[in-house]
Amino acid sequence: LTEMYGPVLGDLSFLPKNLYGNWSTKINIDGGLTPEKIRVNGRFFGKNNLIYDESFDEIVFDYSFIDKNLLFKNFSASKNTGKIFGGFSYGIESENIDIWGNISNIPLTDINNYTKLPLSLVGNLNGLIKASITPKEKLMTSEFYISKSSVNNRKVYDSHLKVDLKNDDIKIKASVLGEQIKLDSFISLKDTNLNNSFVKTNVDVKSLNEIFSVFSFVDNINNGFEGEIKFKNKTEFNIKKFEQFNNRLTFERLVLKKDKVNVDFSSKVGVSQIVVEKGRIKNWDLDIRGSKFTLLSKGEGEIAKDYNISSKIKFDASLLEV
Predict the structure, then answer these.
(1) pTM: predicted TM-score of the whole model, two decimal places
(2) Which of 64, 102, 170, 303 has the CB geometry, 3.0–4.6 Å to 187, for a possible disulfide?
């Protein structure tokens, strides 16, 4: 395909080299031979498709080229019990691009690229995306979530991801396995003096064993491991002026129990072990100790200039036997 249509459509290197399927199309062309007059209307139908190493039972969409506008609509791709819907439009003269689509109940175990990951998490992938790109403005909103989540036939909380883009501003919100791991961030690429970018992370996990069980190489039933962790971190920064960097880490709780390892750490309420203000380290003193376990980190200086951070972690090897 890339060799056939490349001379006409330009660079098609983004397309996979291997495309498979049983395809057919109906097409009607009239009006004239110039881009201004030609009118193209068609419908595509494909069965047993393989695209980017992903198989789709059926792909259907309508397409047209009228008044220098390319349009793909009523797109539908079936993957077992799930479907992908969407559309795409491009104006040659205006250079406006519009993209829309949603994902409905595609089992994670039916996504070929996902099955290559060392993960035991199963569930259904859902989501939506809408984007509009013009020479003057870039807008996008997208949202994805995993429903009916489980690990080794045990129900777990669902996960969620939301990404919004408005020109040079990016917002990302995520929650992993319910509210146990949360991310809230705003990244501004604008050239400004303000510290208007931030990343907030909150982790409150009552059972580390359950979290680790998401990985297929972890035996969460027979490993004899118990643990919990709770901390929060907030980072503020200007992507063009790193010397204004602010950071505050509050490590509230860590429990680890495995064979000879026994850690039961709780910090004083409101105490932040790491504090950086306008690039200067005000406090960097993390000290967590227990039986057969030590985690130390100390630092001083200025992040954008000279600084020294010394960290040490030591633990019994049995902690890795999960």
Answers:
(1) 0.85
(2) 170
